[in-house]
Here is the input.
Amino acid sequence: MKFRNAIVKPFGLKGEKNLSDFVIVESNRLATISKNDKHLDFVIAFMTEKRMNDSLYLSVSTKVRYNNRMGKFYFTIIKPFHRLICKILLKRVRRNL
Here is the structure.
């Protein structure tokens, strides 16, 4: 988040302290991270599913709505990092489970 905040500051976008401030646990199977801003709105959903062999399946889905051209430009730059961060987070969750 520190790296992101340093990059977006010149564009007048807000700095964020911690992404965990935006986590909402919807149920024992669903948690979301959502944030609405002037340039874009996003929701990241983490969903779990119990499999027949009692293993746990975790999936991540992202929804982004651009509010202006800056939002589209911003997400074009951030998208590769977003994918990387999601993969890292999933690996971390897997290790901790």
User: Anything to note?
Assistant: Residues 69-96 form the longest helix (28 residues). DSSP finds two helices and four strands in the chain.
